[in-house]
Design a protein that fits this description.
The protein contains 4 helices and 5 strands; from the N terminus they run E-H-E-E-E-H-E-H-H. By secondary structure, the protein is of the alpha+beta class.
């Protein structure tokens, strides 16, 4: 594996550079949606091997005290090589002295994030796969 390149700017990646991501996602976003999400995020880091995206992480934030990491993914061919750890390190550096940097993950991923300094927290979430797949409009509180 050649040395990876890490990019942080908006517009740094185009959809054609994304292939083989979203493995196991029940409703995967399109490469176009991923680029839009990343470009619209407060902070982002892409990992590239040549021109190919092999990982990414992003943060949404109020820009003052709080940030949330919604996505971290490493291409299956690059997992176990420290790419995810480097993506997290670079993103946390960008977030500086934020009071809170939170994320949600599957239970089996908790030990990974704990090794990176995160603490277990309670949380809850609502998912609407139709927002990704282009189905019906998203649910509103009135639908509950």
């Amino acid at each position: 594996m050649d040395e990876l390149t890490y990019l942080t700017g908006r517009g740094a990646v185009v959809p054609e550079q994304i292939d083989g991501m979203f493995v196991g996602w029940p409703s995967p976003p399109s490469p176009q949606q991923l680029v839009a999400v990343m470009d619209g995020s407060h902070r982002r880091v892409w990992a590239l091997d040549g021109d190919r995206v092999v990982g990414y992480i992003n943060a949404i934030s109020d820009g003052v005290l709080n940030a949330f990491i919604p996505w971290l993914e490493v291409h299956p061919d690059y997992q176990g090589r420290g790419v995810g750890t480097e993506l997290v390190r670079r993103l946390l550096t960008q977030l500086g002295d934020m009071y809170a940097v939170d994320l949600c993950c599957d239970p089996e991923m908790l030990p990974y994030y704990e090794r990176l300094g995160f603490a277990r927290l309670a949380g809850a979430g609502l998912r609407n796969p139709r927002a990704i797949t282009g189905g019906e409009t998203a649910r509103t509180p009135a639908d509950l």
